Amino acid sequence: IEAIQNLFKKIFQVRQLNGTGNKPEVLGGLFTQVRTSTNNDKKLMEQLREQYGQYMNFFKTIIPLTSKLPESDIAKCSIYVHAPHSVAAMVHADLVYEILQIEERNSLNG
Length: 110
What we know:
The protein is mainly alpha-helical and 110 residues long. 58% of the residues lie in helices and 12% in strands. The protein has 5 helices and 2 strands, in the order H-E-H-E-H-H-H. The chain has helices at residues 2-18, 39-52, 68-74, 79-82, 87-108, and strands at 29-34, 58-64.
């Protein structure tokens, strides 16, 4: 929750710094390192969506806590090269698809 509050503060600061009052484009909040098997993480995501969902979009894609991502960092290669059939690779592909859908909707709406 603190991270979301900090995000809104930073957006406000950027608006003041750029002098235009335009808000930076934020496509949405992304839940990462989620322990999908725990009720605690599920409740936290639900709480954040309820509390801040009127102010920002939250991606449907959730990035779970997995060892494959740090392993790919150590191997100095993308998750798609390191473990292309892993859950981590699949959910990142889902995220890319979701972002492309949002961008397509935004371009159609002007």
